[in-house]
């Protein structure tokens, strides 16, 4: 983005993944990315030249036009920077737009969510803009999250809590389902390495197929049931089981945790 300089506060798993995605895309070049990390330069960036490092978050606010906050929620809520004329973007779970205004002093705050798949350009990153965010700010946020994968602006901040339950945990949920499939294969005598490779490829292919179309997943499920083959037998058994309720229960637990994560426990 011409004329914009991005600063990143927090370089853990998610912040680091987004930082590397931005460097790979060159979205904010040629100005070097300024990263604030309390322990100094972080692993995974040792061979990258276009980075400046600081341990002071206020330096990021002073030197950058866009400030991306990627701290753990408790650390984020405790943060205070003076950034009244900056675009402040957060990927901190559960930290509201109102709280972001208090943290930064800015009216131009965006609350988003992403996941570590950003590093390979495969994240989904929805975001909500506070009333003070301008059209130019929106273009900047789209460029930022597009570097991480696909993105959408949502009209209701409450949807970010829903997407926090989806965007972050679902890769873990998929991994758990893959574990169950691999365990079944191994239980039938398939060697562990063969089962792992097969399951990884099958899940990768399924994700690519879903991502390549605008059709809802339910369409594919129904097509397979209508075909009345082996897949239909398995799907009908799953649909008759409590599986859908268990998935919804897991997602709701993740959403509720988003509302309290990082808050003092009383």
Automatic annotation (TrEMBL):
Residue sites binding NADP(+) per the record: 70-73
Keywords from the UniProt entry: Amino-acid biosynthesis, Cytoplasm, NADP, Oxidoreductase, Proline biosynthesis
Stretches assigned to the Pyrroline-5-carboxylate reductase dimerisation domain: 157-258
Pfam families recorded: F420_oxidored (PF03807), P5CR_dimer (PF14748)
GO cellular component, one term: cytoplasm
Principal localisation: cytoplasm
Record carries keyword Glycoprotein: no
Catalytic class of the enzyme: oxidoreductase
Gene3D superfamilies: NAD(P)-binding Rossmann-like Domain (3.40.50.720), ProC C-terminal domain-like (1.10.3730.10)
Catalytic activity: L-proline + NAD(+) = (S)-1-pyrroline-5-carboxylate + NADH + 2 H(+); L-proline + NADP(+) = (S)-1-pyrroline-5-carboxylate + NADPH + 2 H(+)
Pyrroline-5-carboxylate reductase catalytic N-terminal domain mapped to chain residues: 5-94
EC number: 1.5.1.2
Pathway(s) per entry: Amino-acid biosynthesis; L-proline biosynthesis; L-proline from L-glutamate 5-semialdehyde: step 1/1
Domain of life per record: Bacteria
GO biological process: L-proline biosynthetic process
Molecular functions per Gene Ontology: pyrroline-5-carboxylate reductase activity
Compartments, record wording: Cytoplasm
The family this protein is said to belong to: Belongs to the pyrroline-5-carboxylate reductase family.
Function (record text): Catalyzes the reduction of 1-pyrroline-5-carboxylate (PCA) to L-proline.
Protein name according to UniProt: Pyrroline-5-carboxylate reductase
């Amino acid at each position: 983005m011409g004329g914009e300089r991005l600063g990143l506060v927090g370089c853990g798993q998610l912040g680091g993944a987004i930082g590397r995605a931005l460097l790979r895309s060159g979205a904010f070049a040629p100005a070097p990315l300024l990263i604030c990390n309390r322990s100094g330069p972080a692993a995974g960036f040792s061979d990258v030249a276009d980075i400046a490092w600081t341990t002071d978050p206020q330096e990021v606010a002073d030197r950058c036009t866009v400030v991306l906050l990627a701290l753990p929620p408790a650390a984020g809520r405790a943060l205070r920077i003076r950034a009244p004329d900056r675009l402040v973007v957060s990927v901190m779970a559960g930290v509201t737009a109102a709280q972001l205004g208090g943290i930064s002093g800015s009216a131009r705050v965006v609350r988003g969510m992403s996941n570590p798949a950003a590093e390979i350009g495969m994240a989904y990153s929805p975001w909500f803009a506070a009333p003070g965010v301008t059209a130019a700010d929106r273009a900047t946020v789209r460029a930022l999250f597009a570097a991480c994968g696909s993105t959408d602006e949502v009209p209701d901040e409450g949807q970010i809590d829903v997407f926090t339950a989806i965007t972050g945990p679902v890769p873990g949920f998929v991994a758990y389902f893959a574990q169950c499939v691999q365990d079944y294969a191994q239980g039938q005598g398939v060697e562990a390495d063969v089962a792992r490779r097969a399951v990884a490829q099958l899940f990768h292919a399924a994700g690519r197929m879903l991502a390549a179309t605008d059709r809802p997943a339910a369409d594919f499920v129904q097509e397979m049931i209508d075909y009345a083959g082996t897949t239909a037998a398995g799907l009908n058994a799953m649909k008759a089981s409590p599986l859908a309720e268990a998935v919804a229960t897991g997602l709701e637990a993740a959403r509720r945790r988003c509302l309290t994560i990082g808050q003092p426990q009383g």
